[in-house]
Write a structure and sequence with these properties.
66% helix, two-stranded parallel sheet
């Protein structure tokens, strides 16, 4: 049986693995990976801070949409 701490610990480890491998995570990916009520506000802040300190870029969905629009060839 997993405790609240165990579940959030595994989720955080998975986030760090993915973030370090890919170089970035979206806010939505981070928020959906952490079980609801799994972190206090201070723990959530520390998670974001630690991800950034590990070199993981944290981007919002709107930033990704802007990148995909830039990467698309112009319509003729």
């Amino acid at each position: 049986m997993r405790t609240r701490t165990g579940a959030t610990h595994e989720a955080r480890k998975a986030l760090f693995r993915k973030g370090v491998q890919e170089g970035r995570l979206t806010v939505a990916e981070i928020e959906s990976a952490i079980p609801e009520g799994g972190l206090t506000a201070a723990e959530r802040w520390l998670l974001y801070y630690s991800l950034q300190a590990a070199g993981v870029e944290i981007v919002g969905e709107e930033e990704l949409e802007g990148e995909s629009a830039e990467a698309s060839p112009p319509e003729i």
